[in-house]
Write a structure and sequence with these properties.
By secondary structure, chain A is mainly α. Chain A is 40% helix and 0% strand. The chains are: A mainly alpha (147), B mainly alpha (132).
């Protein structure tokens, strides 16, 4: 009886992961705290060293105060470190995903005027084109350039 | 198992039910009266506060829009922000800790300091008056 119960529990635990396929669903605390002002950027887009730099100065986060309480800070820090990417870090003490070589390459076909248009406004506004970015979905299927 | 989950969900929802915009306003007003016994929250003063830049670059309305019962847009990142007025989004101001956290961050961004209880009461009075 015991092994059956254990198997059932394991299957239940695995369900949400199976439903989300290969995407990493944003951690709920990360999404609530960071994803209110900007998209909860996928952790793999920066290496752990860059996330660490950002987490160290949240009270001066790109010109705004993004401070967190100790509990949220620790959980988000752990989530970012565990899921960080391995590419070369972008420059500076305020590393930007948009200044990684990967970002430039992926977006090389986007016309310059589109970045500056009111629909996009900022290269930080992933959701302007990646309509499901809030859920960590950046697939071509959900990509639509604004007019 | 299902009943257990329901009970758990109900227990988790409890803290969120503990506050509503009117009781938050009353709390800020009571706090403000400790310094000024005659204080009464004013929607008109709240609107002025909400739309003023206070000597800096941004006002509250820079991100939350004015009137704040439609969706706002982050002044820097362009991200859409859900309407701030409780009349437009019933989730707003239903969690005291969450409201305090955002007053803390955003007041620092707009005014370069924390907001007083009187200012928070005025802003809430303004937001509550905006029911469409």
């Amino acid at each position: 009886m015991r092994p059956v119960l254990l198997a059932a529990l394991l299957a239940l635990a695995a369900l949400p992961a199976a439903a989300d396929k290969p995407r990493l669903p944003p951690n709920p605390v990360y999404k609530a705290e960071c994803g209110s002002c900007h998209v909860a950027y996928p952790p793999r887009l920066l290496p752990a060293s860059s996330w660490q730099l950002l987490m160290q100065r949240l009270d001066r986060h790109f010109g705004t105060d993004a401070s967190l309480d100790a509990g949220a800070r620790e959980e988000i820090g752990r989530y970012l470190a565990a899921n960080a990417g391995r590419r070369e870090p972008p420059p500076g003490v305020e590393p930007r995903i948009t200044e990684t070589r990967w970002f430039a390459k992926e977006h090389r076909e986007v016309p310059a005027a589109l970045w500056k248009g009111t629909a996009v406004k900022s290269a930080a506004n992933c959701g302007a084109c990646h309509r499901r970015a809030d859920d960590g979905d950046y697939s071509e299927r959900t990509l639509r350039l604004p007019k | 198992m299902n009943i257990f989950l329901l009970i758990m969900a109900a227990a988790l929802a409890l803290p969120a039910l503990a506050a509503d915009p009117a009781s938050l306003l009353a709390g800020y007003q009571a706090e403000a009266r400790k310094a000024d016994a005659a204080f009464a929250a004013s929607a008109r003063r709240g609107e002025h506060f909400f739309t003023a830049t206070h000597g800096g670059e941004w006002s509250c309305a820079s991100c939350h829009g004015n009137p704040p019962d439609g969706a706002g847009r982050h002044a820097k990142t362009g991200k859409t922000i859900a309407p701030l007025a409780p009349g437009a989004d019933p989730q707003r101001f239903t969690d005291a800790a969450r409201s305090e956290k955002w007053f803390g961050r955003n007041c620092k961004d707009v005014l370069g300091r924390v907001c007083t209880s009187a200012e928070k009461a005025d802003v809430l009075a303004f937001l509550l008056k905006r029911r469409s």
